[in-house]
Amino acid sequence: MSPAAASLADLTARHRNEIVAYLVRLLGDRQEAEDACQDAFLRAHRAFARLGADANSRAWLYRIASRSALNALRRRSRRAARAADVDPDALPANPGASPEQREQLLAIRRAVERLPPRQRAALMLRQFQGLGYAEIAATLGGREQSARANVYQALKKIRASLGGPQEGSRS
Questions:
Q1: How far is Cα 114 from Cα 100, in angstroms, rounded to an integer?
Q2: Integer Cα distance of 147 and 25 in angstroms
Q3: b/e string for 46-74 if b means 16 or more Cβ within 10 A?
Q4: Are the C-beta atoms of residues 62 and 37 closer than 8 Å to each other?
Q5: 153-170: pLDDT as tens digits
Q6: Rounded CA gap, 23 and 123, in Å?
Q7: Are 140 and 102 within one domain?
């Protein structure tokens, strides 16, 4: 195995689980996330030779994975029938959660699912993957200010959807 191939294999092994977890959160479907991950690593393999030695390889992988996920979301939105999508009402509830907690979690999930793909991706990268705004910008392509704005807008829309305090209001 060539040194470059070994390096890509190491990179894949090191980040695959976290990339799949990110894609599951973004896409809401494990199989679709696995497919997007496979597509992302195939694209990474093809482009690996162009990756600079000083590049942030983790952000580079997230950027490729995000593009694969956004493509999957576009394909999904073009399909007229969404029969294969997971119905949040059909998911098993957390047995330890109270009915109010389960309802609140379901409402949050629905609000997140309604977010535009870019805002959803930025929110998932920030809240669940722990990426900084610079890494989110590198991942999604764009500026750090855009990454901040996407996360802010996503949170604002979720609060509005849940009936929380609006911007400028005092509680």
A1: 21
A2: 18
A3: eebeebeeeeebbbbbbbbbbbbbbebbe
A4: no
A5: 999 999 998 886 655 544
A6: 12
A7: yes
Residue whose tokens read 């059909």: 90
State the amino acid at position 151 in one-letter form.
Answer: V
Q: Which distant-in-sequence residues (6+ apart) come within 8 Å of 76 by Cβ?
A: 32, 82, 85
Domain ends where: 49, 81, 113? 81
Instruction: Say what the pTM is.
Output: 0.53
Pick left, alpha or beta for residue 98 (phi over 0 → left; psi -120 to 50 → alpha; otherwise beta).
Answer: beta
| 131-154: pLDDT as tens digits | 889 888 888 878 999 999 999 999
Per-residue 3-state assignment (H helix, E strand, C coil) for 65-99: HHHHHHHHHHHHHHCCCCCCCCCHHHCCCCCCCCH
Range of the domain at 142: 96-164
CA distance 29 to 35: 10
Three-state secondary-structure class, residue 141? coil
